[in-house]
Amino acid sequence: MIRPLLRVALLLLPFTAANALAEPARQPGEPYELVRGLQAVQDGIANGDTAAHGSHIALIRQIGERFLAADPGVWSNAQNSQAAVIYLLSGGAPQIVRKLPRDKMNIDERLFNGALAYVEGRQEEAREQLKDVKPRTLSSGLGGQVALVQGALFARAEASLAIERLDDARLLLPGTLVEEAALRREILLVGQAEDFDKFEFLALAYIRHYRNSIYAGDFWQRVSTSLAQSSLALDERRFARIAALLEQIERAGRLKLYLVIARAAMLRGQLAVTRLAGERALTLSADASADRERAHFFRGVARALTDEYDGGLAELKALDRSKLPERDVLLLNATEQLALDVRKPLPGGSAIAADKPPATPARLDLASSTVTLARAHKQLGELELLTRDRRP
Fold first, then answer.
1. 356 — alpha (psi -120 to 50), left (phi > 0) or beta?
2. How is 196-234 classified by DSSP, letter by letter?
3. How confident is the model at residue 8 (pLDDT cuts 50, 70, 90)?
4. What are phi and psi of 14, to 5 degrees?
5. Is 133 within 8 Å of 117 (Cβ atoms)?
6. d(CA 191, CA 228)
7. CB crowding 227-252: b at 16 or more within 10 Å, else e
8. What dihedral do alpha carbons 308, 309, 315, 319 form, nearest 10°?
9. Counting Cβ atoms within 10 Å, is residue 354 exposed (0-12), middle (13-18) or buried (19+)?
10. N or C: which end of the chain has fewer CB within 10 A?
11. What would the pLDDT profile of 103-131 be if each residue is shown by its tens digit?
């Protein structure tokens, strides 16, 4: 990204030279021009420009100095007043903006005060000031920034409104760091809403445009969190689509996520997904590793409780328990006992008994395999999900 950096350098060079020579030179750029240069550099960050990432903090500081040195009359220009707010929301120092001549500012006070409140951490005040602002009624540069902020402010209290505002941010400033940030924030909200189609759309949009972003790691962390905390990945019919998305994540992260998905699916009784995720984890894990043992555990459970009883039970019995976390050992004990109980002959062993099962099956007695469950009551809830509808 040489051009944006060069453009900003050229804008700032005369100012630096004027200071060095102590000449009363004219200001070589309007505030809005300086902010456009800043935005160009930040857009480079979204595209993976490490030089831009390293220089933009110094650039923000220089622009702040230019703002303070500007003739007060320049702020009567609406473009320049809007630029002050954009600068603030782009990482500019609030103490700089507070020193600007407020009586000269040509901008809605709600925007100015709301932006200040947001960057200074006064969230409630910021929500109050910005709640009725419609981003699409503003210029795209300012509207996109405001929409991004609104998305953050309303994420917890009004998730649907936050998603709507983040959509606005993406539409108003496509191809920019604002769109990149909106995608990162929105993917988590859409995941919480269990909207798989939009989740997939946002993920593919990020891959297409921002896979090299400096902040790509944060995006994939949010994707992982969404998949781990929702049921998005627990539908067998769309597992292939999930797997295609996860191919974009580095190997270690992908392995960790498949293990998370396998366990969540097992506890919800989605044994087809448990097996699929476990098998993916097996292909990604190292021989004799703890991750490999966990992958065998999940696949073994799925096999033993579906159509490969003998093979699944053998896989479970071959596990190195010392490599499993305690919570998985508890479930392994219960699962092995459950698998054995599934094959127990019916009371009396008669054909009559087989033809006429009891109307209400007795609850499984798992006492022999769950001695340690007394130390972990929460595991009982997980076990209940696992054994539901699979009692003999």
1. beta
2. HHHHHHHHHHHHHHHTT-TTHHHHHHHHHHHHHHSSTT-
3. very low
4. -60, -35
5. no
6. 10
7. bbebebbbeeeebebbbebbebbeee
8. 140
9. exposed
10. C
11. 999 999 999 999 999 999 999 999 999 99
Helices 50-69 and 2-21 pack at an angle, to 10 degrees, of: 40
Helix (H) or strand (E) holding 356: none
Q: Tell me, what amino acid is at 234?
A: L
At 67, the amino acid letter reads F
Q: What are phi and psi of 377, to 5 degrees?
A: -60, -30
The count of other CB atoms within 10 Å of the CB of residue 67 is 23
Confidence class for position 53, pLDDT limits 50, 70, 90: confident
Residue showing tokens 């407020």: 102
Cα 279 from Cα 289, distance rounded (Å): 15
Query: In this structure, are residues 141 and 32 in contact, taking their beta carbons and an 8 Å threshold?
Result: no
62 and 12 in contact (C-beta within 8 Å)? yes
Residue 375 burial (10 A CB sphere; 0-12, 13-18, 19+): exposed
For 151-199, how does the pLDDT look when each residue is reduced to its tens digit (9 = 90+)? 999 999 999 999 999 999 999 999 999 999 999 999 999 999 999 999 9
- Separation between Cα atoms, residue 9 and residue 238, nearest integer Å: 49
Residue type, 329: V
DSSP, res 321:
G
Residue 327 has pLDDT above 70, yes or no: yes
Q: Which residues contact 110 (CB under 8 A, 6 or more apart)?
A: 129, 130, 132, 133
Q: What is the rounded CA–CA span in Å between residue 392 and residue 140?
A: 63
In 3D space, the residue among 327, 281, 349, 335 whose CA is nearest the CA of residue 303 turns out to be 335
Rg (C-alpha) for the chain, rounded Å, is 29
| pLDDT score recorded for residue 381 | 53
HSE (CB half, 13 Å, CA atoms) of 100? 32
